[in-house]
Structures are given as C-alpha cells and as structure tokens.
C-alpha cells in the first residue's frame, strides 16, 4: 500500500506499573466506539506474546523460573516480535488499527540497561513494522514502585527501572530529533489520575481514528 488509508499502528510504552495495560484497554474500547465498526477493526497486542513457544520461554524467565544469558533473552524478545510482524502488517493493510502494549523500544531499554551495547540491542528489530505513533507513559520509578503488584516480575526493581528510564529517554530524544520512519514519539504524564491520562492519550491518538496515510514504515530502515 502506498497512498490509500490503512490501519494505524499505535504503541504504548513505559516503565513497569506505569499503567500501560490499563490505558491500552481503555484506548482499545474508545477506538472501537469512535470507529463504530465492530471489534475486528481494532486489535490489541501485549508484548511479549506469551502464548507462543518463544513467549513461553520468555514468561518462565520473567517469573524467575529459568535463567538465560542476557544476549539470549534479548534475542528471544526480538524473535517474539518478529513472530507477529506479518500479522501486524496484515491487520494494517486490511484497515485494522493495531494497539500494542510494549514493542521494540522496551527491548532496547531493558537490555541496554544491563550494559549490552545500544546499537547491538537495536539491530535485531531493524525492519519490523514501525508504529505511526508511540505514546510513552512517563512516570518516576519511585512512584511506579508504590503501585499495586509491583515486584512480581524479574525487572520490577527500582534500581532497574531507573536505568531503563534513562535508555527510554535516549530513545525518545532520538526519535523526536529524527522524525523518520519510526513515527511520532509523544510523552504522556502518567502520574496523573487514570482518567486524566486516558484523556491525554486520546488527544494524541484521535487524528489516527480513521487510519493512517501512506505505506507502512519499517523500524530504523535508514540506519
């Protein structure tokens, strides 16, 4: 597809317990209502997709039920995204909006925080379908740590989240400066009430309610 309207690809990123899953669900419902076209017009994806063979390995690792080398788990996360790449593309070409909870940006942030080279972390995801809009739920690690359920998974430790946020900040700066195929990066204050955050997200998403224009971009294809 080159010029006709297609589905929009929208990603919500953020630290653990920043409210991503809640806001993705709220946004999904609101998009459905706005499109007034039935449930098939908007699909939700929650990365990692834990139902695939690779996803099950990731799930065991995140729950500290297995141990894997840092390089290995990073490549598994990337492979999990590639498992869904053709599905995402097909949805978009059919006019369906795709709403994702986490994507390649999380993969870079969590692995680079461990000390793996930034460019190496990015390389496996080059060529994935690029979001038209990435919404980063910005919250301090200290506030996130006070939220219900914090600490249930491997990376939910305040010192880890501080390092992850630094990498996210770098990614955001690069995308805002570049403005290329990776789409628009918008920061949302996630320290507000759930309702206020939902309204801020909607303001950013509303222009894409009826789809996106042009061909589907590819992540970092011009590197």
UniProtKB/TrEMBL annotation:
Its EC number is 2.7.4.9. InterPro entries: P-loop_NTPase, Thymidylate_kin-like_dom, Thymidylate_kinase. Pathway: Pyrimidine metabolism; dTTP biosynthesis. One of its GO terms (molecular function) is ATP binding. The keyword Kinase applies. Gene3D superfamilies: P-loop containing nucleotide triphosphate hydrolases. The keyword Transferase applies. GO terms for cellular component: cytosol; nucleus. Residues 12-200 form the Thymidylate kinase-like domain. One of its GO terms (biological process) is dTTP biosynthetic process. Pfam families: Thymidylate_kin (PF02223). Keywords: ATP-binding, Kinase, Nucleotide biosynthesis, Nucleotide-binding, Transferase. SUPFAM superfamilies: P-loop containing nucleoside triphosphate hydrolases (SSF52540). It comes from the Eukaryota. Belongs to the thymidylate kinase family. This is Thymidylate kinase. It comes from Suillus discolor.
């Amino acid at each position: 597809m080159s010029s006709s309207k297609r589905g929009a690809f929208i990603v919500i990123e953020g630290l653990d317990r920043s409210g991503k899953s809640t806001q993705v669900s709220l946004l999904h419902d609101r998009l459905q209502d706005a499109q007034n076209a039935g449930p098939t017009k908007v699909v939700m994806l929650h990365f990692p997709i834990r139902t695939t063979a690779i996803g099950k390995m990731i799930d065991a690792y995140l729950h500290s039920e297995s141990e894997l080398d840092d390089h290995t788990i990073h490549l598994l996360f990337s492979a999990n995204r590639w498992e869904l790449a053709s599905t995402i593309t097909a949805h978009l070409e059919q006019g369906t909006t795709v709403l994702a909870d986490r994507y390649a940006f999380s993969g870079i942030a969590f692995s680079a925080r461990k000390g793996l080279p930034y460019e190496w972390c990015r390389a496996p995801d080059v060529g994935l379908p690029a979001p038209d809009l990435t919404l980063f739920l910005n919250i301090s690690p200290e506030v996130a740590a006070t939220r219900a359920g914090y600490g249930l998974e491997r990376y939910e430790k305040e010192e880890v989240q501080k390092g992850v946020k630094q990498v996210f900040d770098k990614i955001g700066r690069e995308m805002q400066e570049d403005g290329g195929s990776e789409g628009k990066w918008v920061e949302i204050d996630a320290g507000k009430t759930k309702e206020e955050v939902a309204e801020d997200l909607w303001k950013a998403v509303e222009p894409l309610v009826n789809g996106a224009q042009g061909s589907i971009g590819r992540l970092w294809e011009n590197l």
